[in-house]
Design a protein that fits this description.
- By secondary structure, the protein is mostly helical.
- It contains 11 helices and 3 strands.
- It has a 3-stranded mixed β-sheet.
- Keywords: Cell membrane, G-protein coupled receptor, Membrane, Olfaction, Receptor, Sensory transduction, Transducer, Transmembrane, Transmembrane helix.
- GO terms for molecular function: G protein-coupled receptor activity; olfactory receptor activity.
- One of its GO terms (cellular component) is plasma membrane.
Length: about 325
């Protein structure tokens, strides 16, 4: 390794294996990947179109949902087409520049989704705890500022990773046992000291995603306290129902990620392909199921979907 470092050899091309030890099953694995991606793309695109074109849905809750759907499209598109190219065409080669670009958008979009979920929790808190001031607090100007802040936070925190990776010399193995690139997964093939990368990545995780989870938890404690102080049983049920979709999406978004981290930390005997499949589920499940959950549990979106899908067919 030392001799390689002195000669200045640095890999500029990497090879993604896909799902290691399951190469002969790639064609079968590609089927649920493709179906999930098509559902995610069509479902979220339809959701965005319905919200943007229906004036009655230009409310804070639906505008935040529109942001979430947009992030879902980006997140799934960053990962699934690459995986399908590996499964179908054995297109495993990826340049260093493309690899860094891919992980930049994956990580920044993941942080964006986390920020949007926190904002949606804040929206539910205002709607339930301060219903009379809801429209005066969550104005369109504030929603626009929140959207810009979420984007700046996600891109601003991930941008330094580009420079932290660019400074490295990749003189070790250039075969990545995964379907996509991610920060530490790429950095560990460098022959330099990557402690800065590790600590920066950990700091970003704690200051964004983990902080968001804590704030979401606090907001829902306050929401539940406010709900159970409502004297009317019907009003309590209605308030809980408005939070149901959001809670499902929170569990769906953070649940697989937490489970993946726990299996990586404690599941030393779990095969590598299981870790890769779990990582892909984290990227696939939320974009696919989010529009379905909101379509089933939100009456206004249900009505608009029926109108768009069936009225146009009749005409």
């Amino acid at each position: 390794m030392t001799s390689l470092n002195h000669t200045g050899v640095s890999h500029t091309i990497f090879h993604l294996l896909g799902i290691p030890s399951l190469e002969d099953q790639h064609m079968w694995i590609s089927i649920p990947f493709f179906i999930a991606y098509v559902i995610a793309l069509l479902g979220n695109s339809l959701l965005i179109c319905i919200i943007l074109t229906t004036r009655s849905l230009h409310e804070p809750m639906y505008l935040f949902l529109c942001m979430l759907a947009g992030a879902d499209v980006v997140l799934s598109t960053c990962t699934v087409p690459q995986a399908l190219a590996i499964f179908w065409f054995h297109a495993r080669e990826i340049s260093l520049g493309r690899c860094i670009t891919q992980l930049f958008f994956i990580h920044s979009t993941f942080i964006s989704e986390s920020g949007i979920l926190l904002t949606m929790a804040f929206d539910r808190y205002i709607a339930i705890c301060y219903p009379l001031r809801y429209t005066t607090i969550l104005t369109r100007a504030l929603i626009g500022k929140i959207g810009v802040t979420i984007s700046l936070r996600s891109y601003g925190t991930i941008s330094p990773i580009i420079f932290l990776l660019k400074r490295l010399t990749f003189c070790q193995n250039n075969i990545i046992p995964h379907t996509y690139c991610e920060h530490i997964g790429l950095a560990k093939y460098a022959c330099n000291d990557i402690r800065v990368n590790i600590w920066y990545g950990f700091s970003i995780l704690m200051l964004t995603v983990v902080l968001d989870v804590v704030l979401i938890y606090v907001s829902y404690v306050l929401i539940l306290c406010a709900i159970f102080r409502i004297p009317s049983r019907d009003a309590r049920h209605k308030a809980l129902n408005t939070c149901g979709s959001h809670v499902c999406i929170i569990v769906l978004f953070y649940g697989p990620g937490i489970f993946t981290i726990l299996t990586q930390r404690f599941g030393r005997h779990i095969p590598p392909h299981t870790h890769i499949l779990l990582a892909n589920i984290c990227m696939l499940a939320p974009p696919m199921l989010n529009p379905i959950i909101y379509g089933i549990k939100t009456k206004q979106i249900q009505e608009q979907m029926v109108h768009v899908l069936f009225t146009k067919q009749k005409s």
